[in-house]
Protein: FGGY family carbohydrate kinase
Amino acid sequence: MGIVAGLDSSSALTQIVVCDTDTGAVLRQGYAAHPVDAKATEIDPQAWLLSLGEAAGGGLLEGVQAIGVSAQQHGLVPLDHQGNLVRPALLGNDKRAQVSAADLIDALGGRQAWAEAVGSVPQATHPVAKLRWLARAEPEVAQRVVSVLQPHDWLVWQLLGRPARRTTDRGSASGTGYWSAGSGSYRPDLVELALGHRCALPEVLGPADSAGTTPEGLLISAGTGETMAAAFGLGVAVGDAVVSLGASGSVMAVHHEALADPSGMITSYADATGMHLPVVHTNNAVRALRGTAEMLGLDDLDSLSDLAMKSTPGACGLVLLPYLEGERTPRLPHTAGTLSGLRRESMKPEHLARAAFEGMLCSLADALDVLRGRGVEVRRVFLLGATAGLPAVQAAAPAIFGAQVVVPQPADYAALGAARQAAWALGVSQGTLSPTAPPIWQDAAVQLLDAGDELAVGQAVRQQYGATRDQLHPGAFSGGAG
Structure:
């Protein structure tokens, strides 16, 4: 038996799991909060190392042979010629680059040109847009930038003792806006377009490659971004989609090729196994539920779910379009949410509660259909997030999604994915695993939900939702879903 560790440095904390290389069984774990505000948009990366050291305290890593690193995505760590920070790292939640992203879209010739170049259209979150912002807002600082890393790249580099070689992986690179998952190569001209000059970019490693070995002989695998690590930890494969329920929502699926999407609704990431992870984001998910609960004077979402279960599918004709913060899918940045279908018999709290859950799920089903419309196979839907366990979500999701729904038990899936990658790299280095076949670990404990006889009812709910959406926002999907 070998022992490996997976480290996930998220926006708020560092989580470490120590696992058996053969089965993936968690032997021990640790965590520590980052000593900064989780909502901060800038950070001294040393805070990540302090948190890592605290999480690994008490001999947690004793006997570990390899470490995999997962970290928050879209951060930018700008370095000078000596490898020192030229300013604090810019984090993924920094929205100051919105204008810069729009400038870059125009500078290259539009959204389609970007989609074809790198598989995504610049958003404020992307490092390429942050570089543009840096060049405009802090030109003297920008001139000192000689190389750039992302959070996982920087952590790997630090663990290895800051060697001359700096590395990343396909997953993290695909979120930069200057590396193409389709061609597997950088576009240094786009870095120059954004920053005003070219700079050194980390070497992109393959899924089973190692980034190096520490002076103590500890192997460090390639590492990856949180999204890719979580997908690897869950064990999703072709035919699987993952729907994440946060304040906003996201839908991703495993696919055999990168998808270029001129509309910008699909972001084409690479995954941690050599496949691809097309992702569709929505601006609104659980925030629509929380807003509805507040309207109804309810203290929590459990109460909203209980109330919704007193209604019936279709919410007595009520339809809630949950576009409260504008919407990204469909692309309606300046719209607002809509409540439609009000009749005397539908004006009851339970019907509004039901409409909120159905509206959120139908919006995410629209996002699923964006992927299906590009040939992505979806047989199972993994449902993640604290609200995935609510009865109102579980009662409606399989029929609305038109697929079996899998609800995994809560776990540190990004850290588990990082550990699994470490086991893969270790096995390849020892000659016991193939670089094309990751270790097979025990499946996560899950709850399986099927639509059964409710499938036709779910499709009727979607039709009602789609008719309302298309009436208020004709052409939003160019003939799209529902």
